[in-house]
């Protein structure tokens, strides 16, 4: 955040300097305004924001300038100018951001600026957008590291859920199983953070020529979002069945508990590799071994055990996709039950 605040401040100053010194504008108010609005406080969709804000500011200023010359300034004039400016933006099928900027700049021109100005105000807005465009290409490494950090965080949480599931299944502990199920629902926030981080990272490598070399790295992390999501959903179903099993005081087969241990260990390996900025492929052979073990596991004696075994086999596929395999490749590595 400190970087973005500093970047906005420097961009605002540069926009003012360029408009006042190079273009000799006496009071280029709209140049720093456009620069700050374009950059915002996030790295995602900066190029789109630059285009929308610059055009929105320019359109709002232009419409307001023309109308204030005709109708003057005042309360009803503000009402008319804002309505007409926003209507024009809506007719252009503009985004919410664009429409908002048109309205705001129309208000500023109608209430604070002497009417009858020349095109310098629109030029100032374009200057601010241009400065923001250049500034947006300079980004720190944090937005590129954050996707991997968030992915590792989700993977660690998945491993903790699996370990807790194993313990509650072994001890037929209804309370622990229920608490674990509640924790799986809380992972939605972490997944949302991961999605945002991945999208932001992709936007950064697209917009910054200085970060293009990180494109494959960021894309590889973005590709783990959906497999992680599926793995968590599969785990949620598995845990829900363990809750039922514990309530019925059923005993889970010992080899199923060992499989849960192995799945936990493999997931921890994935989390460690992601946290260390390495490919999670290191867990692939371990997962293949687990897949083969599920085909030789003992026959389930209860419905809950059957569901748990089926979900473990599904989870192996999800985790194999997470380490880089396609769905067809991953599913082919899980042998049919013998």
How would you describe the overall organization of this protein?
This protein is mainly α. The chain is built from 14 helices and no strands. The chain has helices spanning 2-22, 30-39, 46-71, 75-91, 96-112, 120-136, 142-171, 174-207, 215-222, 225-247, 254-275, 284-295, 303-322, 327-332.
How far from one another are the termini?
56 Å
| Architecture (CATH level 2) name of the largest domain | Up-down Bundle
Task: Write out the CATH superfamily name of the largest domain.
Answer: Phosphate transport system protein phou homolog 2, domain 2
Q: Report the biggest beta sheet as strand number plus sense, adding barrel if it closes.
A: none
The CATH topology of the largest domain comes to Methane Monooxygenase Hydroxylase, Chain G, domain 1
Strand/helix succession: HHHHHHHHHHHHHH
Q: Assign a percent range to the helix content.
A: over 70%
Structural class: mainly alpha
Strand content: under 5%
Count of β-strands: 0
The chain-level mean pLDDT equals 81
Tell the overall outline. elongated
Quickly name the level 1 CATH class of the largest domain. Answer: Mainly Alpha
Number of helices: 14
Q: Which regions contain 5 or more consecutive residues with pLDDT less than 50?
A: none
From the alpha carbons, calculate the radius of gyration and give it in angstroms.
28 Å
